Amino acid sequence: MRLDRFLAETTDLTRSLAKKALHRGEVSVDGEVVKNPAIQLGEANRVRWRGQPLALVGLRYVMLHKPAGVECTSRRTLYPRAVDLIDLPKAERLQPVGRLDVETTGLVLLSDDGQWSHRVTAPRRRCGKVYRVTLAEPLEGPALAAAQACFAEGLLLDGEAKPTRPAELAMREPRVAAVTLHEGKYHQVRRMFAAIGNHVVALHREAVGPLTLGDLPEGEWRALSEAEVAAF
Ligand code: URA
Fold this sequence. Notes:
Elements: H1 3-10, H2 15-23, E1 27-29, E2 32-33, E3 47-49, E4 52-54, E5 61-66, E6 95-96, E7 105-111, H3 114-121, E8 129-135, H4 141-153, E9 168-173, E10 176-181, H5 188-195, E11 200-208, E12 211-212, E13 221-223, H6 226-230
Parallel strand pairs: 7-11
Antiparallel strand pairs: 1-2, 1-3, 3-4, 5-7, 5-13, 6-7, 8-10, 8-11, 9-10, 11-12
Helix pairs in contact: 1-2
């Protein structure tokens, strides 16, 4: 990798600011001041900027316990973003792997590995996402059986060309459901319950594939283990 690109990857400098830092003699490679932005670095070269050692960040995989009022987006909005809660270098490079609405709480995966993210979200991979859904109206008896049949067959939601993929619905309490989806359409859980005449009061994602939040507190994140990354 070229030295100026390496500096832009590992610091907050843009490539043109990196060239200026090089020109000012702020960068050393293996202890020697280097001013040429075009030199190619090998794995063994050790680079310092203003005396600080620099290293490429590599690919990161994290889970976040998202609180309400946080948005899963990369652009800046009125709300804090999920990446703003992750105190890693260059955290803004992490992309949410399947989004939650601003008011939805629970498990969000983030990564800068696009291929891995695709494996988690591609519907044909059938990675189940489990949601705890608090409803405005109780769902029991024949209405529950009808809803389970609808969810299992698929519903044609407003504005969609294709019905939803088969989803599982179970009740934990008359107003608390567990729904498992294998895809992620916009506001899907809320729209599915609206389609059967109910209303979602609160929504929380408990699991993505084999991963659950465990005892991770709301607002906190942790890196996934190698085994967790490999599970998808
Ligand atoms: N379905 C929704 O309606 N909202 C979410 O955040 C996730 C799934």
